[in-house]
Amino acid sequence: AMARHAGPRLPLIVKNLVPTLSSVFDSQRITTTAFFAELLNSNVVNDLFLLETMMDNMTGRQKDTCMLVRMLALRGLGNIASGSPEKVRKHGAKLLASMVNGMDDKDDPNNLVALEAMSSLSKLLDHVEERDIQSMLLHIAIRIRPFFDSEQPDLRQSSIALFGNLSRFSEGHCEVFFEQILNGLVTLLLHLQDPKPEVVKACKFALRMCGPSMGCEGLCDMFLNHLREDRSLHYGEFINNVCKHLMQSYPEMLNRLISTNLFYFKSSWVDIRAAAPMFIGFLVLHVDEDHCQQVDLDPLLSGEWVLG
């Protein structure tokens, strides 16, 4: 409301609030950071030449002792994507570094700062220079991978959606990012059976985005056609066809794909626990005899007892 109706008064208000960012009271730092973060949602800060000042203040809060302040500072930096998108390109490297620092926050037991960093980074990616993100691409992809299996659905959703957004920048780093796609492929396919619809939606998006980087036209077409948001999925039939393409294009990946699936035999989500052995069954069904000989049966046989 103040951005819309009190624009001319904002420079003085901002000037008076800046000192409270260094207040000894957490509540004052939280309130001011929250106010600045929401103000950055509006282009009025750009019109009033306040953007750089506020951005510098948000960046300066990244080392704050209060976790909520650090989280809100990242939200404010991410809001620049909607408030002043034309400025993101100019400050891209600085904004991206802030998001990466947020994902690496060491004093974040519930991963709230990391969640805000991932959500904000997804918003910024539409506006940053490709060269700025490519230098950080691998680090971010590796950093967010553990969140795919988080017990917190919002962390699963945000990290998977971010992975899909990152894949747009894989050109020129195709081999490096292709390896990250292969590392996450089984997880993304299994989480199509996730109990939370928003996570399933993120997986569909990520797989559609990753498809063109996989070098398999049949797989890419399957992801584009079968994983549309508005289309229901017959999972068994889908995985059967996915495995057929995987074994035609990457038969040497068989053991790696099987071992990743074995990990999910102990999943706390029953539908994912059920999908993993089915996935392995279809892989073995479609692999040629030469590669089938390479399968180590011992983990598979012991996996049966884990399922029971």
UniProtKB/TrEMBL annotation:
GO terms for cellular component: cytoplasm. InterPro entries: ARM-like (IPR011989), ARM-type_fold (IPR016024), HEAT_Maestro (IPR055406), Maestro_heat-like_prot (IPR045206). Residues 56-302 form the Maestro/Maestro-like HEAT-repeats domain. This is MROH1 protein. The lineage of its organism: Eukaryota, Metazoa, Chordata, Craniata, Vertebrata.
